[in-house]
Fold this sequence. Notes:
Family: Belongs to the IAA-amido conjugating enzyme family.
Structural class: alpha+beta
Protein name: Indole-3-acetic acid-amido synthetase GH3.6
Largest sheet: 8 strands, antiparallel
Radius of gyration: 25 Å
Distance between the termini: 60 Å
Number of strands: 20
Keywords: Ligase
Pfam families: GH3 (PF03321), GH3_C (PF23572), GH3_M (PF23571)
Strand order of the largest sheet: 9-10-11-16-15-14-12-13
GO molecular function: acid-amino acid ligase activity
Strand content: 15-25%
Amino acid sequence: MTDDALLKQLEESTKDFSRHQAETLRSILQHQRGVRYLQRHLPGAGDHNFLIDAATFRLSVPLSCYDDYADYINQLADGDKCTSDDDHDHRHLLSVDPLVCFFYSSGTSSMKPKLIPYFDSTLSKGASHIAHQGSAAVLRKFFPPRPEVNKRLAFIYADSITTTKGGFKVMAASSFPLHSSSNPNRSLFMSLSSPMEVILGSNVEHQMYCHLLCGLRNSDSIDAIHVPYAIGLIKAMWVLESKWKQLCDDIEKGILCSVINDVRMRDSVVQVLGGPQPDLSNRIRLIFEKKDWGGILSKLWPNVRYIRSVMTGSMKQYYSKLKYYAGEVPLVGGDYFASECCVAINLDIKQPPDLTRFVMLPTAAYFEFLPFDLAENNVVGEETVDVCGVEVGKVYEVVVTTYRGFYRYRLGDVVRVVGFYNSSPLLEFVMRAPKTSNEIVTEGDLMAAMENFQLVLRNTMGMGIEIVEFTSSADFGSSPKRLKILIEVKDCDMILQDKLQESNLRKCCSDLEDSLGSIYKVQRNKGEISPLSLSVLKCGSFDRLLKLAIENGTPASQYKPPKIIRNPSIVDVLEENVIVTI
Length: 582
């Protein structure tokens, strides 16, 4: 299908959202009527003549979260057969389609990713095809392919896959096309500056170094830079800042530094280097020696046309830094695709995070909207509305019924309906939903407060102070409870040399507490919360968190530093590296 045909099909699908949604739900329920999960709530669902409307479905099937599926998912992962006599096969616990593998979720607040079953569903493939292919067509519309400059520097990591007790592979959803041996997506490798051996490596730090090295070797051929999440490019830039001399040496000599010990990766990168490149090395070295990192990406890759990444949600904090590195190169936003299903597509990809809007896809899943009160940081009851009931300006938690085994599933994303594209809701991503009702700060309020805190720090202590990462945790062991905020700054020596005087830091901390949002302020004014605790950590502390997450199964390509930590043991890991606490 041509790009014009794809975009036309996408456009047409948004014109009658309600009808497409009704057809999508009917299709899902007809196809999955034999699954055990649905039969628990819909007696007679297994009947071939089974029909049900959306209202009855919402009345009969309760809202669900991951815990409601955990036992079934564990049975599937273990390969267990159902013990109930009325179940024919373990595959029918959640879907009638065969189970292919599991995807890891991208959530990292607990450091233990969830397993999302991936069923071989023809209907789901058809539904997601327009989303993924449509997204690619939108990108090509803004940036038509150039045969002469056709390489992409992509910081992707098809992490080493694991296997469940039942023999099913577990991987990141983004890794699936790269691990599949019999699909045309292998041609993806042909457009990338890095060889397959780098992408399929197992050491993230080494892979990142090799991505940079291969990208620099192909500097004149790089058309675009891709990274799943903005934090991935920020980390790559930190490697570039600290390792540029070694990178230049490797290009000059045509060999790879001895630190990279993966033989297959080494051999493939040496082949890309193609022998000593002294002229290229000198050219790149001159750029670095100027020590001007503003617009560095366009200086190193003069033909790059855009940088693509997810920059909304918790990734928004990195946007200004990416703009600094990118200079005049456009930053292009991603789509709203979850591990469970595609939700919405970004048709205006050049907009900054604050103005990014997503057009919902009516055939990707059946969607409901659970009203959410930002002032209370909680949903309003458990009664959802469909697309006919949403109101512009109102905030909702997204609920999905998918082709792949989730029914009235709370996705955990809070969005605002800002308008309509034809008849399809236009969404603004607000934040991740709170896990419990007793959380004392929202992700959105925390991020806004930290953005203001960075400005206060610079105004009070000088321009050299830069917060590179932060997180928070509620200490319910204190009486009354206390919010802890932990930050890492770029130059730890400034703290060790007393450049962050305690009195100045305490004043900044007070300003931070004043900007933490209404939910925090109300409880603080009532005396229900102790004064804020602010800790400054040693450099590299959050890298330990990344390593811990990867050790616990989180794919490196999907890692997002948690803004609210709910696991005390993770807080303990960070607090081992505290320099000063106010």
